[in-house]
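Standup notes
- DV: blocked on the single-chain target, sequence here:
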Amino acid sequence: MATEVFREKSPLSVKDSFVLFERTKASFTFPIHTHDVWELNFVEHAAGARRIVGDSDESIGERDLVLLANTGLKHAWLNGDCRSDEIHEITLQFSPSLFDNGIFQKNQFDSIMKMFVKAEYGLAFGEKAIDRILPVLRMISTERGFYSVMKFFILLYELSLSDDVRTLSKRTSDEVTENDYQMKKILDYIGKNVSSSITVDELAQYMGMSLSTLSRFLKKNTRHNFTDFLQEYRINSVVRELNNNEKECIMDIASRYGFVSQSYFYKVFKKLKGVTPQEYRENYQRIRVVV
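- DV (later): unblocked, structure below
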């Protein structure tokens, strides 16, 4: 069954050159989506995870590096057969308009611009390319201002010279599967009711599934039971707010996502993220780069 793919809005502002996120997590929870920016995504310690880019659907190895230069290209990293609880991900998002400036039509940027044309269908880089650029990618998160931007361009240039690369998708858009549709329907329901109490019975009734069918579906697609999946959804929602809101009271944010008890919220957050919400916010400010 066809349906609209989830449309993500990037936190990148019109005044930023790029935004970089780095995180360690136990599972992939974001649905198949598109967004209004281009993206370079690096994933490690996630062997067996499922990567979808357009009509490409593959199981990844220990390390995965993909460039997407198409705001309409659906993509996602899903759990698949990944059993790691130390998935490490670095995501670098940037606007296509960044390269509208005439300087990027100069000969020195020719290989980068040609790479972007190929990346319209998604480009996956091999181990040699990853080995070459990974130190620069890790370094970007430690830099600020001018030097961070220069390393960003160096990173793109080094990738553009690589012959250890392949195109992923034959088409830039595709219909999602019935399984994708059901997962999106679950996420939509939870998203609309996240501030309220949500029971597994209510969700099963909404989905038109028996409790056992819903349980099997969630276990297969998220590796979680309903309670754990809902907890992780809520905590990840809080995390996204913490990433983009440096000043608002943490419990005010948490309450919008169904947490009424501070002690319970802190307990669940620490269990899933390994740190307290305040520690996460402080650490995040050290790894997030916006230039």
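- Follow-up: The chain has a mean pLDDT of 88.
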